[in-house]
Amino acid sequence: MQDVESIVERALAEFDRSGDAAQLENAKARFLGKSGELTALLKALGALAPAERRSAGALINAAKERIEAALAARRAALAGAGLEARLAEEALDVTLPGRQRGRGSIHPLIRSWQRVEAIFRSIGFDVADGPEIETDWYNFTALNNPENHPARSMQDTFYVDGRDEKDLPLLLRTHTSPMQVRYARMHSPPLKVIVPGRCYRVDSDATHSPMFHQVEGLWIDEHISFADLKGVYTDFLRRFFESDDLAVRFRPSFFPFTEPSAEIDVAFQNGPLEGKWLEISGAGQVHPDVVRNFGLDAERYIGFAFGSGIERLTMLRYGINDLRLFFDGDLRFLKQFA
Ligand code: DAH
pTM for this one? Predict the structure, then answer.
């Protein structure tokens, strides 16, 4: 029976070609199914003479066994391959380094803040903290800014709804200077303190942000002079920038709460900003009116104050040219300081 042999060959070839279980079961149906080719031959046996029927039957049964054996083998092979594939796909390389949780890092401004604290602590300054919502009196009046004085408009202020217990307007502090008065009223001289913190003004461009950081400094005793301010601040700058190679200049200026007043400028002797004077801080000898608002005798107590921009210090230290980078939260920027 030529037919039987060819059916076996085709069945075996089709099983081999079947790439997955579904294809294999379809192939099986074509040969062994109810209307499969081999089944058709079996059904045809009935029409044969008894002698022929026996030999043909034996032949067909042998063929069926071969096909079934091939089918079982192919099923096993496909199942094995599937398992291999799954194992390969789900393989776990236990020698790989673990995935770590992102660690985060300290923001460059906070790094500067911490450096400033460490430097001033090392020369005996206390570090204090104060409210960001301030009263008009502490922010302006106590610092010798009379009401309606034009100096107030130097600082464009965010006012807050509500008033304090003395019915004074509330505002977001425009500088850290009000803490001079708060601190002085809570401590007795000598007063030697810095106050780093957030400040707010209606201002926004590449060099101004509505929220920014300052550090206030105050040293009051019986004989603290402008020379002490020069010594302390120059030493601070050298340590902050880790360079003795910088020049410091005290340029006459005006602030209502200091007399005389100065702007402190720094110039680096090398690097991209070489030779350029850069303003870094306001400063001065504390005005006697302010000393009186401290609750102290202005004939006896004297000293200096300064207020420096932490953004400015940080931009100069790292060569950052746009203040907004500090507040965008862009990890590509922040990771450089990690
Ligand atoms: N508070 C001033 C400002 O924000 C800066 C300042 C100037 C602070 C002179 C001081 C000072 O303590 O003495 O513009």
Answer: 0.72
